[in-house]
Design brief:
By secondary structure, this protein is α+β, with helices and mostly antiparallel strands. It has two domains: 1-31; 39-145, Lipocalin (Beta Barrel), CATH 2.40.128. It is built from two helices and nine strands; from the N terminus they run αββββββαβββ. The protein has an eight-stranded antiparallel barrel with strand order 1-3-4-5-6-7-8-9. It starts with a helix and ends with a strand. The relative contact order is 0.17.
């Protein structure tokens, strides 16, 4: 009988420890960035690092909780709508202003607008966000930025 009680106590302590660790990880993940209302700086696009030239706006995206997307391609402002189903993002009615772009900004804009024409798989971990193709190839990497 004493052995059975010791076993039950040990299982109970184990259960409490596991629950405590689980709740700590829930608290930790709450501090991670969310998709919505976060400034996501574009760091890499199709395996190419994004460099900001002098007098060039930083390429970024901001997703609102009302399914609106806005941002900048590094040259032009962009805006549109998005839909999120689980980890898949789909974009619609994406458009941009029409300023003339030169150099790497032109290339970045073309590729980013092309990217926003197809659904992507989204993974957010900490302050990093990555878009993947449906074949799970990384195509864009972002970092959340606080001002």
């Amino acid at each position: 009988m004493q052995i059975a009680l010791s076993f039950i106590k040990a299982v109970w302590v184990y259960f409490i420890v596991i629950m405590s660790v689980s709740s700590c990880s829930l608290l930790t993940s709450a501090s991670h960035q969310t998709l919505e209302n976060t400034y996501w700086r574009l760091d890499e696009l199709y395996d190419q690092p994004i460099t900001q030239q002098k007098y060039q706006t930083q390429a970024h995206l901001i997703f609102s909780s009302s399914n609106q997307i806005k941002g900048n391609s590094g040259c032009n402002n962009l805006f549109g709508q998005y839909t999120r189903v689980d980890s898949t993002l789909s974009f619609s009615q994406v458009a941009s202003t029409l300023m003339a772009c030169t150099g790497s900004a032109s290339n970045t804009e073309f590729k980013l607008m092309e990217l926003l024409s197809e659904p992507v798989i989204l993974i957010i971990k900490g302050n990093k966000m990555v878009f993947f193709t449906p074949q799970h190839q990384p195509i864009a990497k972002f970092t959340s930025v606080k001002f």
